[in-house]
Amino acid sequence: MTVTTRCQGCGACLLTCPERAIRPHGAPLLVLARACTGCGECVEVCPVDAIEFTTPTAPTTPARTPATAAAPSATAAPSAPRSVRR
Ligand code: SF4
Ligand code: SF4
C-alpha cells in the first residue's frame, strides 16, 4: 500500500486498518509494509482514493520474457539422455 499526496489526512484509513499498519505522519500517512496484509480495507474507506494498492512484500516472480517463455517448464517430461553407457 502506498498513500499518495492526494491524502487529506482525515484518518479514516488509520482507524480502519485491522493491523494498525498505517501511522500518522501528517499527510500523506505512512503504511508500514511489514505490518500490512494487503486486505484493502483502507483503500475502500479513503474518500479521495489516495491509497494505491501495491504489494511490496509479495514474492517476486521473474518477468516472463520471450526467452523464459520458450524455456522448458519444470514439469515437462525429461528428455532422452545425450549418450548411452555401454
Ligand atoms: S491493506 Fe489492510 S492491513 Fe494494509 S494498510 Fe490497508 S487496511 Fe491496513
Ligand atoms: S483515508 Fe485517505 S485521505 Fe484519509 S488519511 Fe487515509 S489516505 Fe488520507
How are the SSEs placed, and which strands pair?
Elements: E1 2-3, H1 12-16, E2 22-23, E3 30-31, H2 41-45, E4 51-52, H3 66-70
One iron/sulfur cluster (SF4) binds next to helix 2.
What do you see in this structure?
InterPro entries: 4Fe4S_Fe-S-bd, 4Fe4S_Fe_S_CS, Fe-S_Ferredoxin. This protein has helices at 12-16, 41-45, 66-70; strands at 2-3, 22-23, 30-31, 51-52. Helix content is 17%, strand content 9%. It has a domain at 1-58: Alpha-Beta Plaits (2-Layer Sandwich). The structure holds iron/sulfur cluster (SF4) (2 copies). Residues 1, 16-17, 19, 21-22, 31, 36-42 line the site of one iron/sulfur cluster.
> Structural class from helices and strands?
alpha+beta
- Give the helix tally: 3
The small molecules bound here are:
iron/sulfur cluster
Which topology of the domain at 1-58 does CATH recognise? Alpha-Beta Plaits
| Count of β-strands | 4
The top-level CATH class of the domain at 1-58 is Alpha Beta
Distance between the termini: 61 Å
Shape: elongated
Unreliable parts:
none
Average predicted local confidence, pLDDT: 78
N-to-C series of helices and strands: EHEEHEH
Oligomer: single chain
Radius of gyration, taken over Cα atoms and rounded to an integer in Å: 22 Å
Described by strand count, sense and barrel closure, the largest sheet is: 2 strands, antiparallel
* CATH architecture descriptor name of the domain at 1-58: 2-Layer Sandwich
> Portion of residues in helices?
10-25%
Strand order of the largest sheet: 1-4
Domain 4Fe-4S ferredoxin-type: 1-24, 26-56
Organism: Allostreptomyces psammosilenae
Keywords: 4Fe-4S, Iron, Iron-sulfur, Metal-binding
GO molecular function, one term: 4 iron, 4 sulfur cluster binding
